[in-house]
Write a structure and sequence with these properties.
Blueprint lengths: L11 H22 L3 H22 L3 H20 L1 H22 L13 H31 L11 H4 L9 H8 L1 H32 L7 H8 L1 H4 L2 H15 L5 H24 L5 H8 L4 H30 L2 H6 L7 H10 L5 H30 L6
Helix pairs in contact: 1-2, 1-4, 3-4, 5-17, 7-17, 8-12, 8-14, 8-16, 12-14, 13-14, 14-17
């Protein structure tokens, strides 16, 4: 029978430096935002070390301490910067109230193996902090665009009213312009006409190519695979230039089908990769059994093979759709005045007329991409369940 080993609280000589380091880092960020980075670092380090001593050595009551920290940081934020800074204070207070006792009570070891050394524990959490920092670095530019799309002014920056969370500083006028302006609605309609057809072609050809390359008797599989996924590897500007000269010579440059075929070429590699990954665990004895029972290859494909590889096919189709809907370089080479897509219109708006409507369009595109990627993740988990793999 397993025995429970209680976690021993860490001495203040360990907790205080840790809290000072984290508080100094947070203070540095706040200080830099206000033009006093070094002062913010010192104040943050001293403040958090002092709070660690008070709440862990003198007054050892966790719930009241966490409420005090939450209220204190919120009040300080409100006094120094108003409502918007008070919200930041709430986040800081909640984090430090949890982190102080998480470190001070040794709870960070609760889910770790007891035999890990201090260095291994340090690397365990350092690695997660690094991953979190990379995630924040990647996601922050996207998050910043969203509130800016509600700016009541025609600016690409946060106005003082927005920083104060003044309701009058926010507006939906850029979304109204996006939904009513003929230039934007025409661009959206062109993208909607092009992307689904390009996706259908990509899925059809990519799935067939993946199934063919999965056969053991196909010669030069590596070479063929490298050629098929080359549009994903070759710089897009080179692909666009080559398509321009080739499509001009055959007379489809600037036409609807020219753009559709170009986007289909860009989407095929995504379909091939996802379907090939699904076919790795496919039981080929099922197709042989279907053939022995008299099923022709077409019936075997649609009745036996397709239901099992469908999650990979749909995932590849979603990636192909996103690629087509967001692509701008190829459209600049192959498009025309009548076939301006939404990314082209956004690029033109940045280059010729700085219109904040671009921010509304970007927010809508990001929202669509998030929904599609969430669908891909659900399909991945469903595929793992069908193959008997527990999703992680």
């Amino acid at each position: 029978m397993a025995t429970f080993t209680p976690i021993e609280p860490k001495p203040i000589s360990f907790t205080a430096p840790v809290m000072a380091a984290v508080g100094g880092f947070m203070g540095l960020l706040v200080g830099i935002a206000n033009g006093a980075g070094l002062l913010g670092l010192v104040i943050g380090a001293v403040l958090m070390a002092a709070l660690a001593y008070v709440f862990l050595e003198l007054w050892k009551q966790e719930k009241p301490a966490r409420w005090i920290l939450l209220a204190g940081f919120t009040l300080a934020g409100f006094l120094f910067g108003g409502l918007s800074t008070a919200i930041l204070g709430v986040l800081f207070g909640a984090f430090f109230g949890w982190f102080l006792f998480w470190v001070g009570e040794g709870r960070y070891r609760a889910r770790l193996a007891p035999y890990l050394t201090a260095g291994q524990v340090l690397w365990h959490y350092t690695f997660r902090v690094i991953c979190g920092a990379i995630f924040i670095f990647l996601i922050t530019p996207i998050i910043v665009v969203m509130p800016l799309s509600f700016n009541a002014e025609n600016f690409f920056t946060f106005t003082p009213g927005m920083m104060r969370l003044d309701p009058e500083a926010y507006s939906l006028k850029h979304y109204r312009d996006f939904l009513t302006n003929s230039e934007w609605t025409s661009a959206v309609w062109n993208s909607v006409k092009i992307a689904p057809v390009a996706t259908l072609i990509s899925v059809s050809l990519g799935t067939l190519a993946a199934i063919g390359l999965s056969q053991s008797h196909v010669p030069f599989k590596r070479t063929i695979m490298a050629v098929l996924i080359s549009p994903m590897i070759v710089p897009l500007i080179i692909s666009a230039t080559g398509m321009y000269f080739f499509y001009s010579s055959i007379g489809i440059q600037g036409t609807y089908w020219g753009i559709v075929l170009a986007h289909a070429v860009l989407g095929i590699p995504f379909v091939i990769i996802t379907v090939t990954a699904t076919l790795v665990s496919f039981d080929r004895s099922l197709t042989r059994a279907a053939a022995n029972m008299g099923a022709d290859p077409v019936t075997t494909f649609f009745r036996v093979q397709m239901p099992l590889i469908l999650p990979g096919v749909i995932s590849g189709g979603l990636f192909a759709f996103i690629t087509s809907f967001d692509e701008v370089v190829v459209v600049l080479f192959l498009g025309s005045a009548e076939l301006q897509t939404l990314p082209w219109q956004m690029f033109t708006g940045l280059r010729e007329q700085i219109s904040p409507t671009i921010l509304a369009a970007a927010t809508i595109l990001v929202s669509i991409s998030i929904l599609l990627l969430a669908t891909v993740e659900m399909l991945r988990r469903r595929s793992e369940r069908l193959r008997g793999i527990s999703p992680t």
